[in-house]
Each structure stands twice: as C-alpha cells, then as structure tokens.
Amino acid sequence: MQTIKEEKKLFRQQCKQLRLAMPQDTRKQADRVIFQYAAELIEKLQPTVIYCYVSSPLLEVDTLSLIDYAFSRGTELVVPRCKPGTSELEHYVIKSLSQLEKGAFGIMEPIPSLCKEKSEPYSGLCIVPGLAFGYDGIRLGYGKGYYDRFLQKFQGVKVGLCYDCCCFPEGIPHETFDAGMDAVITEKGIR
C-alpha cells in the first residue's frame, strides 16, 4: 500500500508527462481560453491587488498575458520570489517585466533592488500554480511547500490555473496542509 507522499509523487510524474505531451498548438489555445476566463473573473471581482506567479514555459499555464492584463488595468501586481535558503516566498510589487530575472528553479522572479516588497496582511486575488487540482479545489503543487506555506497567510480569493487533463473529478491525494482553492480555471471553464 502506497503512502500519501508516494501517491502524490506518482501524480506529479503523471501530470508532468501529460503536460509535456500536449501539442504546442493545443497548449497555446488552452492558454488563450484560460486567460479569457481569468480576465472575466478579474472583471467580476475587481481586485485592487493581484498576486501572480510568472509561468514556467512548457509546464505551466501561461501567465504573461494575465500579467500584461493586470498592468493594463492599473492593478497592483505582486510576484513571488523564493527566499534564499528557505522554503518561503517573498512578494514584490512589479511595474514591468523588466523588473524580473531568472531565479530559483529557473523561474522568473522580481529583482529585489528594483521592486517594493509586499508584506502582510496578504489579500486580494492570488493566481496559484499547481500541477493538478481536484474538482474540490485541492491543489497538488510541485512538492516544495512554498505555496502551501504562503496560502496559510493569504486572506483573499485563491484561484488555481490548470490544464483540464490535470484536473480530477475524483480528487487528488492530499494531506491536511495542502491548500484548497476558491476556484480552478481550466480551458473547460471555471470550477
């Protein structure tokens, strides 16, 4: 019998393979549709602050369109940075993509000397990365715990972005500390 950790590891591997196997044109179309649903949600919620990760090419739903959209709305945009030597995230307000550099895990992150750090309380709308989500909103991340720790402190609306092939009606293996979302957006709609 597998432990939850082993089940999660297997789910991660399967979801990475599913994402990497998606044809590029299928991914791009899914990214466009997910962006449209996310923009509709933003218009409905009218957040004054949006927390958003910068997507990793080939594996994550593209967030660059969403970031540009937040800039065009004049919404304060907050981007995470992995705090060196820890499993914690720091958050910085960015005004342009030129304030980013390649950081931990090859992900684009804010350059601290060019940005203002955002401190608690954390609230607004948070766009959350994840490898998989259950229809119940439970998130399976990448296994480092950065977002699970952060989301315990976040007091706003949490929205996961995911390709539908990695969104499971029967749920996903999870532990008590795995964060739940208020909504999950896929190319099939908002759950």
Please describe what this structure looks like.
With 191 residues, the chain is α/β, with parallel strands linked by helices. The protein has helices at 4-21, 24-45, 64-73, 146-153, and strands at residues 49-52, 76-82, 89-94, 100-102, 108-110, 116-117, 125-128, 132-134, 139-140, 157-161, 167-168, 183-186, 189-190. It has an 8-stranded mixed sheet with strand order 6-3-2-1-7-10-12-13. The protein is globular and about 50 Å long. 36% of the residues are buried. The model has no long low-confidence stretch (mean pLDDT 93).
Task: Using brief descriptors, characterize the structure shown.
globular; single chain; eight-stranded mixed β-sheet; three-stranded mixed β-sheet; 4 helices; 191 residues
End-to-end CA span: 32 Å
Mean pLDDT: 93
Helical segment count: 4
Q: The biggest beta sheet, please? A: 8 strands, mixed
Q: Class by helix and strand content?
A: alpha/beta
Could you give the order of the helices and strands? HHEHEEEEEEEEHEEEE
Number of strands: 13
Binned strand content: 15-25%
Radius of gyration: 16 Å
Residue windows where pLDDT falls under 50 for at least 5 positions: none
Q: What is the global morphology?
A: globular
Strand order of the largest sheet: 6-3-2-1-7-10-12-13
Architecture blueprint of SSEs:
Layout: H1 4-21, H2 24-45, E1 49-52, H3 64-73, E2 76-82, E3 89-94, E4 100-102, E5 108-110, E6 116-117, E7 125-128, E8 132-134, E9 139-140, H4 146-153, E10 157-161, E11 167-168, E12 183-186, E13 189-190
Parallel strand pairs: 1-2, 1-7, 7-10, 8-11, 10-12
Antiparallel strand pairs: 2-3, 3-6, 4-5, 8-9, 12-13
